[in-house]
Each structure stands twice: as C-alpha cells, then as structure tokens.
Amino acid sequence: MAQLKTQPHGGDVTAFLNQVDDAEKRADCFTLLQMMQEVTGEPPVMWGDAMVGFGRYRYKYASGREGEWFLTGFAPRKQNLTVYIIAGFEDYEGLLARLGKHRTSVSCLYVKRLADVDLDVLRELVTRSVAHMRATNP
Predict the structure, then answer these.
(1) What is the pTM of this model?
(2) 23-44 pLDDT, tens per residue?
(3) Which residue, 123, 129, 132, 72, is CA-closest to 99?
(4) pLDDT, tens digit, for every residue of 27-86?
(5) CB of 25 within 8 A of CB of 63?
C-alpha cells in the first residue's frame, strides 16, 4: 500500500515561519503557533514542506488504508492562511457564523489574515475540533 506523501519530519518550524515573506502573515503564523500549542499541549512539527501540525492521531478507513495525521495545524499559503480543522465543519455552524471573513472546504479553513476573524472564536473552533478528534481517535 502506498504511503502518504506528507510526513512529519524534524524541520525547524521557527526557521520555516521566519521565511514567510509577508510580515503580517508571518506574525499571524506565530500567533497561530502559540494558540495551537496552548490548545493541544503539543509541540509544533513540520509536516511536508509547508504545514505545521500539532499532536497526532491514527486513522483507518473501511478500505483498510491507514495512516497518521496531525490533530490540528496550519500552513501559510500564498493567498491565505490555511487552518486545518480536522473534525470538519458540520457541527460548527454557530462558531463559523461568528468567526468573521473566511471560507471553508472539507477540513480547511481559509483566512486572508487573522485581523479578519475573531481570535476567541477561532480558538474555540480549534479547541472543539481537537477535543472531537481525541475523543473519536483514542
């Protein structure tokens, strides 16, 4: 069975974030770094070339495919900051309505800058997602 391409590695998270060109986005990344470390109690780990993940869980699909992924994380992309809400958004409509300017896909929350969102609501969203993932993937 093929192994997942994106793997955790010992890359230097701080050095990676310091390479983010846009000063505001770089500062936002350090804000997310601190928030996610506080929420998870886990150290940041580089996953692949451009994702910072916190904690881990194992999954196994009905097909038999299994692997490991982070509980939450983020990536500074050219257009947006991508925040990984691994639990998805199905149960978080109320929080999303109060979050501010954003868009979502399956488990990705896209924000242009943290100034566009309510950080307390974002923290709650990350906290609930992490709690859900820990409860459903012991």
Answers:
(1) 0.92
(2) 999 999 999 999 999 999 999 9
(3) 123
(4) 999 999 999 999 999 999 999 999 999 999 988 777 877 888 999 999 999 999 999 999
(5) no
Which pairing describes strands 8-9 and 44-47: parallel, antiparallel, or unpaired? antiparallel
Closest CA to 70 of 17, 128, 129: 129
Q: What distance in Å separates the CA atoms of residue 10 and residue 103, rounded to the nearest whole number?
A: 31
Collapsing DSSP to helix, strand or coil, 108 comes out as: strand
Quick one: DSSP state of residue 116? Answer: G
Number of residues assigned to the chain? 138
Q: What share of the chain is helix, strand, coil (3-state, %, to 5)?
A: 40, 25, 35
- Rounded Cα distance, 4 and 97, in Å: 34
Q: Is 29 within 8 Å of 73 (Cβ atoms)?
A: no
User: What pLDDT does residue 65 have?
Assistant: 79
All structural domains of the chain, each given as residue ranges with its CATH number in brackets, are 8-136 (3.90.1150.200)
